[in-house]
Specification:
With 495 residues, the protein is an alpha+beta fold. Helices cover 42% and strands 10% of the residues.
Length: 495
C-alpha cells in the first residue's frame, strides 16, 4: 500500500518525461529546419512514390506517419479536409512536397504553442516615445481601439504610430496585437504593410508601421478624378494585379487575411497615375494551421463557406477581393452617409439577411463597365458561391484578362512591383521574407535540398552494401537508383 504513491509519482514522472522528449524533439525540428525538411521529404516520398503530389488520402497517410514518428497525440493536427483545401496554394487540387512541408510546420508550431502556452508570453519592450526615437507630428485618425499618429524617427523618416490605450486593452487584446505584429513581420512584402516594432510605456502599447499617404480603395477613384487620371482598362488591370500578387504571396506563406475590403487596401503615395497597392490590418489574419474558427471579417465580404463552417480558406480572401472589385466598378462601396449598402448588404436589415444574400444573391454583373468584358468574366469566377469552383490567386493571375495564359508553374510567389506580364517564378525568393529567428521564418524546400538528400541516401546505401559479406550479396537490398534530371524536376518546390 505504501508503494502506491511512489508508483503513481513514478508513472506521472514517466509521462512528463515522455512529453518533455516530444517537445524537445519539436523544438529541434522547428529550429533546425533541415531536420524537419528531411523528415517531410522522406515521409512524403514514401507516400507519393513516383508521383509529384498527393491527394487527401495521401495527406492522411503523411499525417499518420508524422504522428507515429514524433509520438504526438492523435489530435495534434486539424481537420483533414480543411488542411487539404487551405494548403493547396495554387489550386491544383493536390498537394506537392512544399505545401505539405508548410502544412506540417505550421501545425507543429501550433501544437508547440498549445503545449508551452507560448501565446502572449513574449514580452513587449518598455520605453517612452522619446526613448524609442519618435517625435510626434500630428494625429492622422482615431478609432475604437486608439489613435493613429504621424511621427518621425531618429533618421527623420515618417512613421505611422498606432497607439492603443492600456485602459481599453484586455489580455486577449494584447495577444491579438502581438499576433498581428508577428504576422506582419513574417509577411515582408512590397504589397503588404510594413511593421517595424512594437513597444509600450505606462499608458499605451505602440505599433510602428510604414506611412501611406494615398488613401484607400474607398477614395481611390475620387482622388484619381481630381488628378485627371484616365481610369481605363489598363489602369485597373495594374491595380488589381497588385492585389492578387499580395494574396498569392501571403497564401504561399500559409497566412489568410480574413478581412479584405476597401478600407484595408491602401495606396502608398499620391501618384494616382501609377498607384501602388498595400494590404493593411492583419488583426484577424490566421495561420492556415490554426484550429481557431469563427466568422471574423466584415459582413458583406465574408464568403459563403465561412458563413457555413466558420472557417476561413485562401479562396475566402479571393471572394472578398471579388466583392471589392465588383463594388469599385459599380460605385457600390458601402457608405452609410450615401446610403450605399454594397453587393451583399444592400437591402439587408439583419445578419440573417446578409447571410441569405451572400449565399443566394446573384451579382448584377451587367452593372459593371460593359467594355471591360474580361474583368466582368474574371469577377464572376472570383464570386463563385462554391469554394471548389472559385479561382485561387495564382490562377487568377493567369486569367486572360491580365495576360495571355502562360506555361509557368508557380513554385514560389514573387512579391514585387510588376505591372507587366506575369514573370516566370524564381526557384528562390531573393527578398527572403521569412529569414528571422521565428520558428516559421524559413525558406521552403528547394530543389537542391531534395537532390542532395537523395544523393546522401544513395551513398549511405552504397556504404551499407559494401560492408555486407560477400555471402549476403545476393540477398542484400540494393540502393535506389540516383534520380534523373527529369525526376528531379518533378519535385521542383518553392523557397
Amino acid at each position: 500500500v505504501d508503494s502506491t504513491p511512489s508508483t503513481v509519482a513514478s508513472t506521472s514522472d514517466a509521462v512528463k518525461s515522455e512529453q518533455d522528449l516530444i517537445t524537445e524533439r519539436l523544438q529541434t525540428l522547428l529550429h533546425d529546419r533541415n531536420s524537419l525538411k528531411v523528415l517531410v521529404v522522406e515521409i512524403f516520398e514514401s507516400v507519393a512514390a513516383t508521383q509529384k503530389s498527393i491527394d487527401v488520402k495521401g495527406l492522411g497517410k503523411v499525417r499518420t506517419k508524422v504522428i507515429q514518428q514524433l509520438g504526438l497525440p492523435g489530435d495534434s493536427f486539424g481537420d483533414l479536409m480543411t488542411d487539404y483545401l487551405r494548403f493547396d496554394f495554387d489550386g491544383s487540387g493536390a498537394l506537392e512536397v512544399n505545401e505539405v512541408y508548410k502544412l506540417l510546420k505550421f501545425h507543429l508550431w501550433e501544437y508547440w504553442k498549445r503545449v508551452h502556452g507560448v501565446k502572449g508570453k513574449w514580452g513587449v519592450p518598455t520605453k517612452s516615445m522619446a526613448e524609442a526615437g519618435f517625435t510626434f507630428v500630428r494625429e492622422m485618425g482615431k478609432g475604437n481601439q486608439g489613435t493613429v499618429n504621424l511621427c518621425t524617427d531618429r533618421k527623420g523618416e515618417e512613421r505611422c504610430l498606432k497607439c492603443y490605450p492600456k485602459t481599453k486593452m484586455r489580455d486577449l487584446d494584447l495577444d491579438d496585437l502581438k499576433e498581428e505584429f508577428e504576422a506582419m513581420k513574417l509577411l515582408d512584402c512590397k504589397r503588404i504593410a510594413s511593421t517595424f516594432e512594437i513597444f509600450q510605456d505606462d499608458k499605451f502599447y505602440y505599433m510602428v508601421n510604414e506611412v501611406y499617404h494615398g488613401g484607400d480603395f474607398e477614395t481611390l477613384k475620387p482622388h484619381a478624378m481630381e488628378q485627371g487620371i484616365k481610369m481605363d482598362e489598363e489602369w485597373w488591370k495594374k491595380i488589381f494585379k497588385q492585389c492578387f500578387r499580395a494574396l498569392e504571396f501571403m497564401h504561399q506563406q500559409a497566412m489568410i487575411h480574413c478581412d479584405i475590403k476597401e478600407p484595408n487596401m491602401m495606396i502608398k503615395h499620391k501618384d494616382y497615375e501609377a498607384p501602388e497597392v498595400v494590404l493593411i490590418d492583419f488583426g484577424i489574419s490566421k495561420a492556415m494551421g490554426s484550429k481557431e474558427s469563427g466568422w471574423g471579417g466584415t459582413p458583406g465580404y465574408i464568403p459563403p463557406e465561412t458563413l457555413e463552417t466558420k472557417k476561413w480558406f485562401p479562396g475566402g480572401d479571393v471572394f472578398s477581393l471579388g466583392v471589392v472589385i465588383f463594388q469599385m466598378m459599380t460605385d457600390k462601396i458601402p457608405d452609410n452617409d450615401k446610403h450605399t449598402g454594397g453587393l451583399f448588404l444592400e437591402g439587408c436589415s439583419s445578419m440573417e439577411d446578409m447571410v441569405r444574400a451572400t449565399r443566394s444573391r446573384k451579382p448584377a454583373f451587367e452593372l459593371m463597365t460593359p467594355q471591360f468584358k474580361g474583368l466582368v468574366a474574371l469577377t464572376e469566377k472570383l464570386l463563385a458561391k462554391k469554394l471548389v469552383n472559385r479561382l485561387k490567386a495564382p490562377k487568377a493571375l493567369e486569367d486572360p484578362w491580365f495576360a495571355a495564359p502562360t506555361r509557368r508553374r508557380v513554385t514560389v510567389a514573387v512579391c514585387e512591383a510588376d505591372d507587366g506580364p506575369t514573370p516566370v517564378a524564381k526557384e528562390s525568393r531573393e527578398s527572403g521574407p521569412l529569414q528571422g529567428n521565428h520558428p516559421l521564418a524559413t525558406f521552403g524546400i528547394l530543389p537542391d535540398f531534395i537532390k542532395n538528400l537523395r544523393n546522401e541516401m544513395a551513398d549511405k546505401d552504397d556504404d551499407d552494401d559494401s560492408s555486407s559479406s560477400s555471402n549476403d550479396d545476393d540477398e542484400a537490398e540494393q540502393p535506389p537508383p540516383t534520380p534523373s534530371n527529369k525526376e528531379m524536376r518533378r519535385h521542383t518546390v518553392a523557397a
